[in-house]
Amino acid sequence: MPADESVPEQIRVRREKRDRLIAEGGEPFPVDVPRTSTLAEVRARWAGLATGEETEDVVSVTGRVVFVRNTGKLCFATLQEGLSLDSSGERLQVMLSLAEVGEESLARWKADVDLGDFVSVTGRVISSKRGELSVLATSWQLASKALRPMPTLHKELSDETRVRQRYADLVVREAARDMVRTRAAITRSVRESLHAMGFVEIETPVLQLVHGGAHARPFNTHLNAFDTDMTLRIALELFLKRAVVGGVEQVYELGRIFRNEGIDSTHSAEFTMLEVYQAWGDQTSIAQVIKKIILDVADLLGSRVISTPAGEIDLDGDWRWLGVYPGLSEVVGEEITPQIAAEQLRKIAERHDIPLDPAWDEQKIVMELFGELVEPTLIQPTFVCDYPPAAQPLARPHRSDPDLIEAWDLMIGGLERGTGFSELIDPVIQRERLTAQSLAAAAGDPEAMQLDEDFLAALEFGAPPMGGLGLGIDRLVMLFTNAGIRETILFPLLRPED
Questions:
Q1: Between residues 88 and 381, which one has the greater pLDDT?
Q2: 7-18 per-position pLDDT tens digit
Q3: Cβ atoms within 10 Å of 402's Cβ, excluding its own
């Protein structure tokens, strides 16, 4: 049968080996193979062997072949095991000699095994003449035949290839495996911190009849069982608040969020969000919760000082509070108040070459100017507070200034990491704000929230005063790793290839 010219040669050769093994009665993908020890366990137990020392201790180890060198009577290979909490992909040398495994077994190894294959090797633990801890094989078995070649270990994969073929990236690049472990450690730390503070973790619906909890464009879908249009959630907020109404006074969820918006180095269409709600709290008390979460992560990773391209961040320093209007006034060199006219703000924007939408009102312009001129300068932890009401429709009016709301954004390294509020619990005011949002949606704003009658009914049932926060887990990982969002998300959403 002629070879399929459309299949790359290396893939064709490996497929032919698979077919040959089956024809010979072998099994290129067995259900089970011998395994008594992980590679990490072998390294830990026999780390003290002297150069050239041999033992009579027999182990069976498994791993992916990431290096192979076949000579006449002696073959060397390096096995790599998978990622675990205790290992970032430990490697160990195995040796196959004619004297130990026999002529037939050695010949099969040379003929059957390629880079990328998984194998099981049984043999004695020794230290080679060069001092390399090894397993000297007495037998071996193919565990899984790789039908595609591995990337070359000593060559860098392109950024695009690394992200699209994360499975290959994890095999060949230790930094990719470290990112998985670091992210797992961070999410575990977040949960442990909240558990220690008495918070209860719950899960809320991903499919929702009404999209709300944030100003964002949703993904739309259809539920065939009910013949009903639905959306994927854009926030966790509204159902968590329902739980607080029901008496779960300290509650959180760490879950996936979906927003049908732009994708760049700091934004993804799907991402992981932490939201926390604390009855009998406010924006100040909930700020202490997010601060403890972040400091606990820093302590777990070993340092409260983070070096970034924007400068050194000292998490042990002062976490200051900065009002939006005073902060903007300082940067532009003139006083900005909630009473300022839109025309004056447009002149300021023009001086700083900041484009504005003609439809934006004073509050929206203030937020745009602050985001462009002030936020990038906030390297040290800063709670940006005292926003105009348009910034957060679900935040409580400020207790001392009706032109502001009790809400903050936590800026670290010039980037928003989280947000917090004194939550709005007055159902009358909440109805007014959601009605205004629904009117904006009807007028064509795709990001405006819808009127959620069930949520309003829950508030009318009675909600205690509460503070709430949202923390982007991806951006938290970015803070501690200096990586882009596509690196912190293991399998990010990508544009389809042609």
A1: 381
A2: 899 999 999 999
A3: 10
Structure tokens at 165: 């073929």
Nearest of 71, 211, 67, 76 to residue 133 by alpha carbon: 76
Residue 1: what pLDDT?
A: 43
Q: Return the residue matching tokens 């790359």.
A: 8
- pTM of the predicted structure, to 2 decimals: 0.90
Residue 93 belongs to a domain: yes
Two tokens, residue 149: 């070649």
Backbone CA torsion sign across 103, 104, 108, 109: negative
Residue ranges for the known binding site are: 409, 416
pLDDT of 469 above 80: yes
Tokens of 233: 């959630």
The CATH number covering residue 385 comes to 3.30.930.10
Residue list, annotated binding site for Mg(2+) = 409, 416
The gap from C-alpha 327 to its chain's centroid, in whole angstroms, comes to 31
Q: Which of 116, 150, 184 is the last residue of a domain?
A: 150
User: Do 441 and 295 share a domain, yes or no?
Assistant: yes
Q: Which residues contact 496 (CB under 8 A, 6 or more apart)?
A: none
Backbone phi and psi for residue 18, each to the nearest 5 degrees, phi listed first: -60, -50
Residue matched to tokens 């675990």:
84
